[in-house]
Design goal:
Layout lengths: L1 H4 L2 H38 L6 E2 L11 E10 L4 E4 L4 E4 L4 E9 L5 E10 L7 E6 L5 E3 L4 E10 L14 E10 L6
Parallel strand pairs: 1-7, 2-10
Antiparallel strand pairs: 2-4, 3-5, 5-9, 6-8, 6-10, 7-9
């Protein structure tokens, strides 16, 4: 009887090996896809304070007051970045705030900013029309530049019961040196 089961064992082992190989390939593929899928998810839902991009505000303005405060951090960039002053406005109004960046080094430096908002749940209602964070910025030695961000808060925030009491949002940027030359 032992001889009758021998041919089935190698076939069973090949099937298990094939399944494990497909599982390993699937895990490697998932690892490569995880980051872009996470960014797409955050952009679509506003998760983790990720803001949205918009061309304008088609929903109008509501009577609710909002204040946006700004924060700027530099990671490995030899820049001094001064955040814009807080802006108070009616929800739905389009506002522009200007950051000032200055290259403190003796070489041209190209950087880009990443952003988030707090409270995190407000990200899905915070819309940017124009932002310096959409492109890389190059500053020559000692050069300063104004970096505007044009935005609005979607009036639908008023319908979100979790955010009805929110009157302050913080928009934060962290600047990173870019490895490729920017525009």
């Amino acid at each position: 009887m032992a001889d009758a089961t021998l041919p089935a064992e190698p076939k069973k082992n090949r099937n298990i090996a094939g399944i494990l190989l497909l599982l390993a390939i699937g895990m490697v593929g998932a690892a490569y896809a995880a980051v872009p899928l996470y960014y797409a998810f955050c952009a679509a839902t506003g998760y983790n304070g990720t803001t949205r991009r918009a061309a304008d505000n088609p929903k109008g303005i509501i009577a609710r007051d909002m204040t946006v405060r700004f924060d700027a951090n530099v990671d490995d960039v030899p820049w001094q970045v001064t955040p814009a002053k807080p802006v108070s406005f009616k929800v739905g109004e389009v506002e522009t705030a200007v950051f000032i960046a200055r290259n403190l080094s003796d070489k041209p430096v190209t950087a880009q900013a990443v952003f988030n908002v707090t409270p995190d749940l407000t990200g899905q209602y915070f819309n940017k029309i124009q932002c310096f964070c959409f492109t890389q910025q190059t500053l020559q030695p000692g050069e300063s530049a104004q970096m505007p961000v044009t935005f609005f808060v979607d009036p639908d925030i008023d319908k979100d019961s979790d955010l009805r009491t929110v009157r302050d949002i913080t928009l934060s940027y962290t600047f990173y040196t870019s490895k490729t030359k920017g525009s």
